[in-house]
Design brief:
about 40% helix; two-stranded antiparallel sheet; ten-stranded mixed beta sheet; D-Maltodextrin-Binding Protein, domain 2; 3 domains; Arc Repressor Mutant, subunit A; single chain; globular
Length: about 325
């Protein structure tokens, strides 16, 4: 009779993680709420329990995860790294639980498009990584719906769209079928030649932009241009000198030639900044963020939750995010 081998001893097992699931849930709640009181309300525990749990989690990993401030709590760089992985780890664990409990089924397929093409700078590689981590979820880029992603969602031609300016319809039927939620933000930066007169500045002012030639693409949607103007200049509408080119490479080369200041997403600018001939600058008033939302058909909500967790930390960053 064949003998059943004894289970491996403790030395044969991989080291047990120090953090527990409740620690991941805690840092996500603190990140979302920004205060221990808000996290306590979301987790249905007392504020003192949240403070105690945070101290215990920090003791387990041996590093401070949140800084305590007068306004609440803000993640440290270590906390940011933990937050970035926590949502995806929890989503993968839920997937594993469902896979174990359910009979084998075909992979779920999502059709996705981006309203703004700048996301395609990194999205295909993110999809490849997602396919390795979540083999039961297949994402197809439906580029033919880029000009009208919301209309395609309404018609059912799309499952998911990444939006920057478009809004979902407000009628009752659309509200019942479609969902939109914040995803992340990218930063709009200003790219100049290293020999530009403003190259010595650490940041640029609104007056610098008013007095300079601005360089942008011809495909910037009117809603994007309007948001840029209101974000930078408020209610005033200065007359600006603007050069427009149909290709990103032309925008970059015009900036390199000293023809003006290029306005670009950090995702696009990042590729061109390694040579030392171009510099990226922020506004002196602070980073110029562009919010992205993920919109999807409610019927795909389960699969989209997995996609959301993966995309939330996939976008590259030119500048590290402050807590």
């Amino acid at each position: 009779m064949a003998r059943i081998p004894a289970p491996p001893g403790p030395s044969a097992l991989a080291p047990r993680p120090q953090l527990e699931i409740r620690d991941l849930e805690l840092v996500l709640a603190l990140s979302a709420a920004g205060t221990t009181a808000g996290a306590a309300s979301a987790m249905h525990v007392t504020q003192s329990a949240v403070s105690r749990a945070l101290t215990q989690a920090e003791d387990r990993v041996g590093v401070r995860l949140f800084e305590r401030t007068a306004r609440g709590v803000a993640p440290t760089s270590a906390g940011e790294r933990l937050i970035a992985g926590a949502r995806l780890l929890l989503a993968e664990l839920r997937d594993l639980e469902r896979e174990v409990a359910a009979p084998a089924v075909a992979p779920t397929r999502l059709r996705l498009v981006c309203e703004c093409a700048t996301a395609y700078r990194w999205l295909p590689s993110a999809m490849a990584s997602l396919r390795r981590r979540l083999p039961r979820l297949e994402v197809e880029l439906a580029l033919e719906h880029a000009e009208d992603p919301v209309g395609a969602l309404v018609r059912g031609d799309l499952d998911v769209a990444l939006l920057t300016t478009a809004s979902l319809p407000s009628d009752r039927a659309a509200r019942g079928a479609l969902v939109a939620r914040p995803l992340f933000s990218d930063e709009v930066v200003f790219v100049i030649s290293a020999s530009h007169p403003l190259a010595g500045r650490a940041s640029l002012t609104r007056d610098d932009l008013r007095k300079s030639t601005l360089i942008t693409g011809t495909n910037m949607p009117p809603a994007e241009a309007q948001r840029f103007m209101s974000s930078v200049f408020g209610r005033t509408k200065p007359r600006l000198d603007v050069l427009r080119f149909p290709l990103t490479e032309a925008v970059i080369d015009a900036a390199r030639a000293g023809m003006g200041i290029a306005i670009l997403s950090e995702w696009t600018a990042e590729v061109y900044l390694g040579g030392g001939d171009l510099l990226a600058r922020r506004l002196s008033s602070g980073p110029l963020r562009r919010p992205w939302r993920i919109a999807y058909r409610r019927a795909a909500e389960g699969a989209v939750e997995r996609l959301f967790a993966a995309l939330e930390t996939s976008a590259p960053r030119l500048y590290p995010r402050a807590g």
